[in-house]
Design a protein that fits this description.
443 residues; TIM Barrel; Immunoglobulin-like; 2 domains; 8-stranded parallel sheet; 5-stranded antiparallel sheet; 7 helices; 17 strands
């Protein structure tokens, strides 16, 4: 979860283009048909004002964007940018990136975050090793950023705010109040346990990350954030980085129904991805736990890292995502969290799911899910090459990528390599029954 570590303090902007748009309330959101797409777009450069970039962003149903105090792009404010994106696609949900777990004790005077950092500094809201050591604890694998004790266990300032209350109110004041057109915040690093040891209760006791007391302290801070931000942004969705949730067991009870969704970062493709160390089934178990722990409409993003020309790995991740109801996101690590990579499969309209998320393999270890306009198949890692009979006639999508797969061919069976997947279209869409009319529920 470190690919974006320094971007909050970068202030790069490009040329501008103006337009007008109307506000779309989060409460009016209706989940789209499949495939559902999400965009993790809070990396530098922040070229959101570019018309071409906006058009690409608007193709996604959920997008995560960056912001900082006073941010403009070629003179364009984030309020204008969000309005322009929503003018293209009124159904796109736009979330602004926030985080509360690290800062710098020595900001430059012209840093956009200087006032914020200096207040944390003056209140000594850093994580310390103990009560006598005034050296903040560095964040994991960093000598530049330092850990904030973002829990209610910190001293209150003159306004009665502890660390997490101050940070939440700061973000609302700077990013929501001037831009109520956004659909909510994306809180990064909503971890289950700390990354570093520290005196989380300010009582002189150094607690290791594995200590349940340290975990309870950290979790209490995020629980407080989600509770407070909802009162300050009524009617908006709130999501977080849920990459650690449910990896090896149940989601912490305090996190259940806390968020409306979140980013399952790098489920596939990174050195630390769960698919790499726990296998496909371990990944899917986590996916199921996360989906069960968030509120409707379950705005969960299934994120994959990889090469944009490794079409087999893409299909594997994409069809894995389609086994449940999340929004798929692909990240090219070479570009960081910026730029929309487009695949042929995104152009296919699968319609609505006609089956629930599967709980067992369908045939020869291959998993299947059905939609009104097609089906998705995924062959898990370790299952070997498999040929499956489809039980009917389907059509491969027609595209310019992976032409041997996306050939437009009519098929009754397909062969899937190990760690592969495919979507196929129906010759005739399924007809879903309409809701009954003229029925009185009191009869």
């Amino acid at each position: 979860m470190m690919i974006h570590k320094s971007i909050r303090h970068v202030m790069t902007a490009t040329a501008a283009v103006a337009a007008l748009a109307t506000c779309t309330s989060a409460l009016a959101f209706t989940p789209p048909s499949f495939p559902r797409l999400g965009g993790v777009e809070y990396g530098n450069p922040f070229d959101y004002n570019d018309a071409t970039v906006q058009a690409r962003l608007a193709k996604q149903s959920i997008i995560l964007l960056n912001d900082y105090p006073g941010m403009t792009m070629g003179g364009e404010s984030m309020k204008t940018v969000v309005s322009q994106i929503k003018a293209i696609n009124p159904n796109t949900l736009v979330f602004i990136y926030v985080q509360s777990d690290y800062q710098t004790p020595s900001p430059a005077s012209n840093d956009a975050w200087a006032a914020y950092d200096n207040h944390i500094n003056s209140m000594k809201w850093w994580l310390y090793p103990n009560t006598s050591d005034n050296s903040p604890v560095a964040t994991q694998n960093s000598t530049t950023w330092y850990t904030v004790n973002n829990t209610p266990n910190t001293p209150k300032d003159s306004s009665g705010n502890d660390s997490i209350d101050y940070q939440t109110k700061f973000d609302v004041s700077n990013f929501y109040t001037p831009n109520t057109n956004i659909d909510g915040f994306f809180m990064d690093n909503v971890m289950v346990q700390p990354n570093v040891p520290g005196d989380w209760y300010r009582n002189g006791t150094l607690l290791q990350p594995s200590d349940p007391r340290a975990q309870a302290a950290l979790q209490s801070g995020y629980e407080r954030y989600f509770s407070l931000v909802r009162t300050l942004m009524p009617g908006k969705y709130q999501i977080g980085n849920v990459a650690e949730w449910g990896q090896s067991g149940a989601v912490p009870s305090g996190y259940v129904n806390m968020a409306d969704g979140g980013l399952m970062e790098a489920m596939i493709g990174a050195s630390w991805s769960i698919e790499g160390w726990a296998g496909w089934q371990g990944m899917m178990n986590q996916y199921t736990r996360v989906m069960g722990a968030v509120n409707s409409p379950k705005l969960v993003i299934f994120n994959q890292y990889g090469s944009p020309t490794d079409y087999q790995s893409f299909r594997y991740g994409f069809t894995s995502c389609l086994m449940n109801d999340a929004y798929y996101s692909f990240t090219n690590p070479g570009n960081g969290y910026t730029g929309v990579v487009w695949f042929d499969e995104y152009n296919a309209n699968l319609g609505q799911a006609t089956t629930s998320p599967p709980t067992a393999a369908w045939q020869k270890g291959v998993w299947r899910r059905d939609f009104t306009n097609g089906i998705a198949l995924v062959n898990p890692k370790g299952n070997g090459t498999q040929t499956v009979q489809l039980g009917g006639t389907f059509v491969k999508i027609k595209g310019s990528q992976a032409s041997s797969v996306n050939s437009g061919q009519t098929v009754t069976s397909v062969t899937l390599q190990d760690r592969d997947g495919i979507i196929l279209l129906r010759q005739s869409p399924l007809q879903q029954p309409k809701a009954p009319t003229g029925v009185n529920a009191t009869n």
